[in-house]
UniProtKB/TrEMBL annotation, chains A, B:
GO terms for molecular function: 3-isopropylmalate dehydrogenase activity; metal ion binding. It comes from Streptomyces spectabilis. Gene3D superfamilies: Isopropylmalate Dehydrogenase (3.40.718.10). Pfam families: Iso_dh (PF00180). Its EC number is 1.1.1.85. InterPro entries: ICDH/IPMDH, IsoPropMal-DH-like_dom. It is an enzyme of class 1 (oxidoreductase). Residues 3-336 form the Isopropylmalate dehydrogenase-like domain. Keywords: Manganese, Metal-binding, NAD, Oxidoreductase. Its cofactor is Mg(2+); Mn(2+). This is 3-isopropylmalate dehydrogenase. It comes from the Bacteria.
């Protein structure tokens, strides 16, 4: 028996998480679900606490966690940070694993999509960079104000994310930085990159500055397999790869501690307030995040089955409006489950 | 008589700059050219100096500067920084103005290009952010190494770039940041943004987080007019908009001190070592940069004429291979001049 902490969250989070949980339920594998449906913006607005220490401990004690989406226009940005970034940092989930695969030519925003099907993974460093919160504001709100956010890179952090990238490479690894302008961390990434490449002479490698990487991804996404980069560039590049793969609705992600194996799995999309209650939210991103969870728990066969079921419903056009279909969130989920 | 400092630089820099200078020459306007063709990687490799103080003073004393491209695989990154970033910072060229306009549907990488023609301008803050070089490495090359690059935002710097963006808005201004994760500078940008919007209630505005902005640009670039953002995001977004407008070959840019009016004009592309000497480098990015220079000097009619000539050669298919043509760099330049 493995306990899965479930944080449905806000907006469409509960709707898509429900489909992910039911998908896992059909497969069995002895998973039990500990649903924390009070972790949401309402609670934050009432109590001022984004995630209580008791809830944090419950999640940390679970075998893995599944998250829907957190955020709310009524709450300040400290709320989303207090849930998502707290979990990433406090559980040292240093790998943000974001695969992007074009499931059907017609989903691509690119011309000649059949010749440019994206199939890559962004490996984003998830515990350093510009996301530590370290910095401050001097003379706030005056004309002399200076604000500083420290972009922090450590040899420990950079080395482990590079090594993780090599461990999941199929064809190649491309390291993305801005070492021609952002000097100090840039030099550290370059040093660690040279060493990591040396440890894996069997894997083909390349390097791009982030601005050039964006252009090349649009120009020819097939050139990329595994892309490894820092927290900020990973945030940006993984939204781009998701868009090139057909939009945010289907993008899945895993936040992993590569040492303990603990993972927090979430669709890349947000709360999508305009879709709440319409029954049109795409559940595929959440369901594919559940597939990543199965993989992490060692149930590769289950993950493969979920992906095959998703591919089949997509091929059959059993999809929500974002993918050109007219099925509801629940109908897509049911169609996936029917194929398991 | 206005003296224009010309820095052809490296790679294809001299080839495209030659076309830009000849375009300006045809138009007259009393421009004289002070060519600094010794500012290049050979000089840097020989002397260790990227840009001498004497050369810096010559450029600073000119009426405007035109740059080709700087960079060389034999030189370290301090070389490009020592020329380009030094000029941007020391001359306080705080506006990086990067327009992107799809000149012909067939240049777009997007499907249904005719419904999604990009026509926007990225206004990039050019003198702060992650580009100051401030930071360092603690315990370099040891397993305990920590590197820090400070992302610096000042009320002075953010306010002036936001106001500049409003001053060039046609339809709307979209401010892009990552204030949900990068807190301190994020809060400063948000404060300054609220004030800048208040000063220009006549202009339509929107806000996007940088990851969402990238998705929306690919999804529907027509949604954007003026985009204003920090140094790093401006670097990334302007390469994306250039790609969506048909590739780097035609993208022009201006580095401007909004107070003195001094400008350094350069194509967005780099040195393109593989194209050197082939005669296939696209001169349009450099020629359109010259048009921006004319505009800055108050010769709006000249700028309009150059743009019309470029549009005409593009419509006639008189273009280099990157745009599907078979003309040489010089032939494209000659075709543009023939229409002036
Ligand atoms: C060469 C590099 C430092 C530069 C930058 O990032 O500013 C370039 O990419 C640009 O956009 O002008
Ligand atoms: C909500 C935000 C802080 C978050 C991030 O930037 O990490 C999100 O964009 C993501 O990519 O998971």
């Amino acid at each position: 028996m493995t306990s899965i902490a479930v944080i449905p969250g806000d907006g469409i989070g509960p709707e898509v998480t429900d489909q992910a949980v039911r998908t896992l339920d059909v497969l069995g594998f002895g998973l039990v679900f500990d649903v924390l449906d009070h972790v949401n913006a309402d609670t934050y607005l009432k109590t001022g606490t984004a995630l209580s220490d008791a809830d944090f401990d419950r999640i940390a004690a679970s075998g893995a966690a599944l998250l829907g989406a957190v955020g709310d226009a009524r709450a300040d940005t400290a709320y989303a940070r207090g849930v998502l970034l707290r979990l990433r940092f406090a559980l040292d989930l240093y790998v943000n694993y974001r695969p992007a695969r074009l499931m059907h030519d017609r989903f691509s925003p690119l011309r000649d999509a059949s010749r440019r099907p994206i199939d890559c993974v962004v490996i984003r460093e998830n515990t350093e960079g510009l996301y530590t919160g370290i910095g401050g504001r001097l003379r706030p709100s005056t004309s002399q104000e200076v604000a500083i956010d420290s972009e922090i890179s450590t040899r420990h952090g950079v080395t482990r994310i590079l090594d993780f990238a090599f461990s999941v490479a199929r064809r190649s690894v491309c390291m993305v930085d801005k070492s021609n302008a952002v000097r100090h961390g840039g030099a550290l990434w370059q040093d660690c990159w040279a060493l990591a490449r040396g440890r894996r002479p069997d894997v083909q490698t390349s390097h791009e500055y982030v601005d050039a990487a964006v252009m090349k991804l649009v120009h020819d996404p097939t050139a990329f397999d595994v892309i490894v980069t820092n927290n900020s560039y990973g945030d940006i590049l993984s939204d781009l790869t998701a868009e090139l793969a057909g939009g945010l609705g289907t993008a899945a992600s895993a936040n992993i501690n590569g040492a303990t194996g603990f993972g927090l799995f979430e669709p890349v999309h947000g709360t999508a307030p305009d879709l709440v209650g319409t029954g049109t939210a795409d559940p595929i991103g959440a369901v594919l995040s559940a597939a990543l969870l199965l993989e992490r728990l060692g149930h590769d066969d289950g993950a493969t089955a979920v992906r095959a079921a998703v591919d089949a419903v997509v091929a059959a056009g059993q999809v929500t409006p974002d993918l050109g279909g007219h099925l509801s969130t629940n109908d897509v989920g049911a169609a996936i489950r029917a194929r398991l």
